[in-house]
Structures are given as structure tokens and as C-alpha cells.
Amino acid sequence: xxxxxxxxxxxxxxxARETPVDVLRFVHRTFGRRAAILTSMQRAGTxxxxxxxxxxxxxxxxxxxxGVLHEETxxxxxxxxxxxxxxxxxxxxxxxxxxxxTAEEGLLYLSxxxxxxxxxxxxxAPLHAxxxxxxxxxxxLRQGEGGARSKVRPVGLDLVMGALRVHPLAHVTNAELNxxxxxxxxxxxxxxxxxxxxxxxxxxxTTPVLPDEPERAGRWRHLASVQYCGINPxxxxxxxxxxxxxDR
Length: 248
Ligand code: SF4
Description:
By secondary structure, this protein is an alpha/beta fold. The protein has a single domain (2-234), classed as HUPs (Rossmann fold, 3-Layer(aba) Sandwich), CATH 3.40.50.620. It is 34% helix and 12% strand. It is built from eight helices and eight strands. The strands form two sheets. It has a six-stranded mixed β-sheet. The longest helix is centred in the middle third of the chain and has 17 residues, at 112-128. The protein is globular and about 45 Å long. It starts with a strand and ends with a strand. 40% of the residues are buried. Iron/sulfur cluster binds next to α6.
């Protein structure tokens, strides 16, 4: 089956009317073991994992450990794996340690061009090595995050992975997310959030944010322009193309 962005319009409109857990059920029913949740262990992602686990949906959960994450984030991964026994947490790693990369190429994250390469090597490449294993990747991107993500739709294409990208929380507001987390003590929450981190990333490139700052203001604060890691197609901008999926 050939899938294009245009052919996904109707599905996106349909999924926009479903609850997040019903979108997860749809993905699980349609793709089974060829679907996975992708999360950096920030609160919207761990809530998504909680919803899947509570509904008995046995997703793989992909987590990219860049080698320069806060220890709290790794502990969140471990706690999530312990607490959500329906899920299989899989850690993906870059080819080189950060020390080896730095010895060979310098501190890439200090410049815009270097940051793109560093994120490509340490975040995107480990995920892209999984190409062919999954037909659908589910993540917790929300329009409420602003920036490039204000355009995220419930379903899109990932031409690099040859897979659908599904965003069950695309239309979930900050207020709705706060309420959901307050009402469910079973959600594993990264302790960095209580320290002022609104988003979770590598420690050289992520800081806490002030209450009146945008959600992603703490990412790559040392670089002049707004940056993304490139792991999510919506952050890379529009791209024309199609993917082939097995008929189901
Ligand atoms: Fe490198 Fe920073 Fe990207 Fe992490 S966020 S992969 S340290 S540039």
C-alpha cells in the first residue's frame, strides 16, 4: 500500500476526534508488533506510556540514550520499565561514546552546524538504524509546544523511517495534560520537571525555563536560533514523498 501525506488527511481528521487511548488502540490493532512508542522520558511521553500500559497494549517503547542525558532521565526509563509491565522498553545508543566523538570531532554542540551533526549522530542515527522494523511510531508531540510543533497532526509520514508517525496528543492542551497527570498517580514523571525543566534532552543543551518562557526555551539556549534534534519529521518541515506499507 502506497501512502502519501494527502492520503492521510482523512485518517488525521478521524483520529483528531478520538481520545489518546483510542488512538493507541487503533495503532495497536492495525500494526501490532510493528508499532512502537518513541519517547525521551518527558511527561507527555511517560503519560502516553501509562495510557498504553493501563489499556493492556504491549508496545515496544524506544528510548534513545545519547550518552549525555541527566541521570534522572535514565532512572525514569528504569522506573517506567518496572512500573509498566505490558511495555518493552528498548534503549537505542549511538555508535561512539560522547568522549570518543569529542576527541575526534570536538564539542559539536557549541555551534549550529555542529549541533545538527551531533544530534544526527547521537539521536537520529540510532533511531534510523531501526528502519524496516516498524510501520508506525507513536510519540507525544503536541501543538501546544509551539514552534514547528504547532502544526503537528495526529498522523504524518516519516520518509526516512518508511513509517507512519502517530501523535495521539496532537490536540491535547497544556491544561489537559496537567489535569491528566494530577489525576493519575500511576504516571511515571521525570524528576527534572520538578526542577524547572519543561522539556527533557541532553544535559549540555537543556536548561530549566522561567514560568513566563515558552516551553522549549530551555533547548539549545546557547545557540542563537531555534533548533530541533531532527528526530521528528514535523520539526524538519514539509517534505514531499510516499512510503510503502504491507497491505493489512
Ligand atoms: Fe549533541 Fe546537544 Fe544534540 Fe545532545 S542535544 S545530541 S549533546 S547537540
